[in-house]
Amino acid sequence: MKKYQLMAPGPTPVPSEVLLAMAQPMIHHRTPEYEALFVEVRAGLKQLFQTGQEVLPLACSGTGAMEAAVVNTLSAGDRVAVVRAGKFGERWVEICRAYGLDVVELAAPFGETVPAGRVVETLRREPRLRAVLAQHSETSTGVLHDVRGYAAATRGTDTLLIVDAVSSLGIADLPMDAWGVDVVVAGSQKGLMLPPGVGFCALGDRAWARTKTATLPKYYLNLGEERRCVVKNEAHFTPAVSIIVGLRQVLRMLEREGLPNVFRRHDRLARATRAGAEALGLELFAKATPSPAVTAVVAPPGVDSERIVAAYAEAHNITIAGGQGEMKGRLFRLGHMGYAAEFDVITALAALEQVLADLGQPVDFGASVRAAQKTFAEKA
Amino acid sequence: MKKYQLMAPGPTPVPSEVLLAMAQPMIHHRTPEYEALFVEVRAGLKQLFQTGQEVLPLACSGTGAMEAAVVNTLSAGDRVAVVRAGKFGERWVEICRAYGLDVVELAAPFGETVPAGRVVETLRREPRLRAVLAQHSETSTGVLHDVRGYAAATRGTDTLLIVDAVSSLGIADLPMDAWGVDVVVAGSQKGLMLPPGVGFCALGDRAWARTKTATLPKYYLNLGEERRCVVKNEAHFTPAVSIIVGLRQVLRMLEREGLPNVFRRHDRLARATRAGAEALGLELFAKATPSPAVTAVVAPPGVDSERIVAAYAEAHNITIAGGQGEMKGRLFRLGHMGYAAEFDVITALAALEQVLADLGQPVDFGASVRAAQKTFAEKA
Question: Which positions in chain B touch A197 (Cβ < 8 Å)?
């Protein structure tokens, strides 16, 4: 018996109390029961996004929510800047170009980040920039971009800051209103510990104002229409009912733990994972501020990282992730987000030692586990 | 104790074996386990859609899949005809107009349908029509449009036939390839007995050819990119994993029953429901070919149909649906689609008798149940 363990950077495991809530008989979304549920969900989402704005759940993946952010706030020909330092930065570029936007790329080598100073400079050089788009946590490289700095740079201008927080919401602190982020996008399957299938958009006042003049075509992802329904505890189109039912349980769990503790937990798990990898002599891929959601590790010289991913699966029934795009074969990624705790990290690292040994690498057994335990023993 | 019964025209109840499959621990969508599941799902969907084409599951509601059909096959300024005889016909119009299409409305009074002859005439008058869009089953009025006739009219022309089969797939016969329907759109929460959250699009060769020249902007709903992934047993973006897991169970159930039997079951349930309503002296709303998915019944003179819906809920814990838009207050709708069987119809009708009596209407108790039983006693 090898127990299945899901340790990829999303989808993350779903807590059993959430699975069981979702396994209750289907309810209809225009009933008092659903309305009471949705009232609670709306309130919980505002706390989670740290905003007074409505958070709009959409029946789509995180990419659909990214597209919603673009098509509701921009018009064809608009000039925008995209922070691009990984696969999801590339996705912003692709979405913007698909809709005929004029994209200025703020690129950094993968594994690094774009300093807020470059955003400041770009805004000075490009006063008509309509938006800056970025990831908070770039899942493909494991870095955390300086969204706080980007917001400081944009909020005194006419340029919106649109942030993909798919792998940072409920993982890294992102006080939307306090920092002045104009649009925050998230998904159900990372920090929210739910099955994939729901994306979220929250818009600040400046972004809502922009929706009045934005002319990109949209229907399914029309956020103004969605908000008109959400404030009445309805959805514009049939919502992903079972995931919304699970969401109520998740929001209760997060509230019980307390958001600051949730962030501290992820930070500890990430530090322990990094310490563990380094204790085995491995190089971390994220040179800049590493993300608390996922740790990207460079495969040892001469080892294709896909072999490491395969060995985790075949020998240990553990799903981790490899590198994406140009990073394929070079790195592997250990997720420690959402429904993840200390002994999950211990398991992932112990398995890593066994995987490396099986691949013929010299391994000091226990070294990475010990490093993680030392991290856990520190006062948080 | 009043047992909860979901008898609305979607979402429909989810069978417990499907709920339990979906309550299994989350799996990752890039694993051999998911691939094996998806191979089976792809094959099952082709049988269900009665097509040799790939059926593309998208993480969105049925409306998202409707939009996908439009944005992948059409270009701004294209002239299209929409069969409009209910709320979902209106939705086609709204989607087309949101994307700058030039819409010719083929309207019929709600409760009626548009004869294929009008499509033939329109094609003669408008030789440059790029597409005809219609519902198969119009959920809001309970009619079934003559998709077979529309297909006969369009398939010898350059005009595509795009059909919303959200409330007919797996309910009424719709042999896509045999009839020559160019695009079929469906959703997870009706005949497929799943939670809402997955939409489906299947395109025939003519529609795929059209995607090469269609210029409407799209990214999340780009079906060409989706197909490129689906044939490799992948998804372009994170799929709604739990619903796809449930879908495998549903496809097995449908195969066990046999598609002809599935259609026969729905036809019997619909006939029994109509017979039951008429036995109480009630008027059916669908004057034309009634849908086997849902029966729309006109409220007795002087009774607001919303009171009937409320009485079902409050006195009996049964969710049915009222009228939508201009039909609000005038009619109520009994769903008998998906996970629905004979005694569900008996329950719905027995409750109807009690509801009407409670609202002060004269009722011959047992009359509608008897009429339904007689229908069930007939050789199918």
Answer: 59, 197-198, 240-243
pLDDT tens digit string along A130-160?
999 999 999 999 999 999 999 999 999 999 9
Distance from CA of B18 to the nearest CA of A (A): 9
Structure tokens at A26: 């289907």
Nearest CA-CA distance, residue A316 and chain B, Å: 14
Q: Which residues pair with A298 in a beta bridge?
A: A283, A331
Distance CA B244, CA B198 (A): 8
pLDDT tens per residue across span A196-234: 999 999 999 999 999 999 999 999 999 999 999 999 999
The confidence score (pLDDT) of residue A380 equals 59
CB contact under 8 A, B11 and A98: no
Q: Cα–chain-centroid distance for residue B183?
A: 14
**Chain B residues within 8 A of A64 when measuring between CB atoms:** 59-60, 64, 220, 237
Please report, to the nearest 10 degrees, the dihedral formed by the alpha carbons of residues B276, B278, B282, B284 taken in order: 100
Mean pLDDT over residues B201-224, rounded? Answer: 98
Asked if A60's CB is within 8 angstroms of B64's CB, the reply is yes
- Across the interface, whether the CB atoms of B216 and A217 are under 8 A apart is answered yes
Classify strands B5-6 and A331-335 as parallel, antiparallel or unpaired. Answer: unpaired
pLDDT for the residue A127: 87
Query: Residue B127: its pLDDT value, please?
Result: 87
Looking at residue B380, its pLDDT comes to 59
Domains of chain A, earliest start first: 5-11+259-377 (3.90.1150.10), 16-256 (3.40.640.10)
Place of tokens 């009025």: B141
pLDDT score of B281: 98
Q: Do B28 and A319 touch (CB under 8 A)?
A: yes
For residue A237, give the nearest of B8, B63, B99 by CB distance: B63
* Both structure tokens of B352: 């109807």
CB contact under 8 A, A238 and B189: yes
Tokens of B194: 């799943």
Please give the torsion angle defined by the CA atoms of residues A106, A161, A286 and A324, in that order, rounded to the nearest 10 degrees.
Answer: -80
Minimum distance, in Å, between the CA of residue A240 and any CA atom of chain B: 5
Query: Given the structure tokens 């501020």, which residue do they identify?
Result: A289
| A31 → chain B, closest CA residue | B319
Q: What is the DSSP letter of B290?
A: B
Cross-chain Cβ contact B217/A217 below 8 Å: yes
- How many whole angstroms separate alpha carbon B154 and alpha carbon B124? 11
- Kindly state the average pLDDT of the residues B143-152: 98
The whole-angstrom separation of Cα B53 and Cα B51 is 5
User: Which residues of A are less than 8 Å from B186 in CB distance?
Assistant: none
Top residue of A219, A222, A236, A314 to mutate, by most chain B CBs within 10 Å, is A219
Segment B150-173 mean pLDDT? 98
CB pairs under 8 A between A and B: 174
pLDDT under 70: residue ranges of chain A: 380
Q: What is the CA radius of gyration of chain B?
A: 21
